[in-house]
Design brief:
The chain contains one helix and 33 strands. The protein is mostly beta strands. Among the domains are: about 30 residues; about 120 residues, Beta Barrel (Lipocalin). Strands 2-7-8-9-10 form a five-stranded mixed β-sheet, with no helix packed on it. Strands 1-33-32-31 form a four-stranded antiparallel β-sheet, with no helix packed on it. Strands 3-4-5-6 form a four-stranded antiparallel β-sheet, with no helix packed on it.
């Protein structure tokens, strides 16, 4: 079919572009320019000691297809799925394994855990509903294309975003399709999709053309659409405007950032733009109290005022080190880099306060926090737990 052929071509182009963006000019041969090399780690006087609580292997981790397989915490357990179909749950306190299931499928997104239900997506476009106690697949539904965004559930509807731009609403008990939102996407995009977020019966999703759309969960009705960034530039690469990182909702405000270079605050009820800031990122936004933090495409870390968008501080201490999205931890912001280091920054001043190497492998995603414990998950499937304490 022509539709399937067009999608396969688009997916191939997307994979090539993703490789070019990750590896840079060195992909074509020759040494990297010195200005493109990762910045050397600077010396500083640490304010905290960092302690590893435990570390454990969970499975095969990720592969080069860049699946969106991220750990999820619920009820004292951390659920993790790997690309080969292994689904495990880990005790968050001691790292011991509680559950271990083999699904024998190439998984691409999830897990999303809701009570006794675990939702997972596959590269072949199947959505799986797995029983968390038995590991049995209770139902599966074939969708239009591979799933790279974590499924979400509200009011009996499972919402799933596919890589071809479609969003499906499925009956949570049967997997039957209730509605579909169909939207075209640009020919050239980064590989990945932002996970839709749900608030008050509405879902919000970022798109590859720099738009955010609001949809009613019950029936798929579009409520509003807002353009955060307009694709512009001489080349297709210049016009990349993807919103692949996480959206954030605080009160009546929604925050988004695009690859093309715009971060914005939108009114949740209408999509009205409240402020914009010239920041280019594809890793998403984090919020802590009155602050927003984001890592830009050069790996500068920005912390801005949530209400106005004014810059509080900007750090270039870790340029070109392949940083994750920042995570708030007490009065600190934490990022991981592609060499497996964790870095803590003072939330008010932007000064480095602590550092440790959590792994020799790059992070599979941003670190995540449960209570006062920070968890690091690497691409080889190793999960570790960390805490900080004041230096004596």
């Amino acid at each position: 079919m022509k539709l399937e052929s067009d999608f396969r071509i688009r997916r191939l182009i997307t994979l090539i572009v993703a490789t070019m963006l990750v590896t840079g000019c060195g992909w074509f041969g020759g040494d990297e320019d010195e200005q493109q090399q990762p910045l050397e780690l600077i010396e500083f006087e640490p304010r905290f000691n960092v302690d590893e609580l435990w570390s454990t292997a969970t499975g095969e981790g990720l592969d080069r297809r860049a699946p969106n397989l991220h750990p999820e915490y619920t009820n004292g357990q951390i659920w993790i799925a790997d690309v080969e179909g292994r689904l495990v749950s880990i005790d968050a306190e001691n790292g011991e394994r509680r559950s271990d299931f083999e699904l024998d499928m190439d998984l691409s997104a999830g897990p999303s855990v809701y009570g006794n239900r675990v939702l997972l997506g596959t590269f072949e476009g199947q959505l799986l509903n797995v029983n968390a106690n038995s590991g049995q697949i209770e139902w599966r539904t074939q969708l239009s294309s591979e799933i790279l965004a974590k499924p979400v559930l509200q009011d009996g509807i499972v919402v799933v975003r596919c890589i071809d731009g479609r969003i499906f609403g499925l009956n949570a008990e049967t997997g039957r399709r209730e509605w579909v939102y169909d939207r075209s996407i640009p020919l050239l995009t980064l590989r990945g999709n932002s996970t839709p977020i749900i608030r008050g019966g509405q879902l919000f999703s970022g798109y590859d053309d720099g738009s955010v759309v609001a949809i009613r969960v019950a029936d798929g009705t579009v409520l509003w659409e807002a353009r955060v960034s307009t694709p512009e530039g001489r080349s297709q690469l210049d016009r990349l405007a993807d919103i692949d990182g996480s959206l954030v909702i605080v009160g009546g405000d929604l925050y988004a950032v695009t690859r093309h270079g715009r971060m914005a605050s939108l009114a949740l009820d209408s999509g009205r733009i409240q402020w914009v800031k010239d920041v280019r990122s594809h890793s998403g936004i984090s919020v802590s109290r009155t602050q927003i933090a984001v890592t830009d495409t050069d790996d500068a870390i920005w912390v801005v005022d949530r209400q106005s968008g004014d810059t509080i501080w900007r750090s270039e201490d870790l340029l070109r080190r392949g940083l994750t999205q920042p995570i708030a931890m007490s009065d600190q912001w934490v990022v991981a880099d592609r060499e497996g280091y964790l870095h803590w920054f003072d939330a008010d001043t932007g000064q480095l306060t602590a550092r440790t190497r959590a792994s020799k492998e790059r992070p599979a995603e941003k670190p995540f926090l449960v209570g006062n414990t920070l968890y690091f998950y690497d691409v080889e499937g190793r999960l570790s737990a960390w805490q900080i304490r004041e230096s004596s």
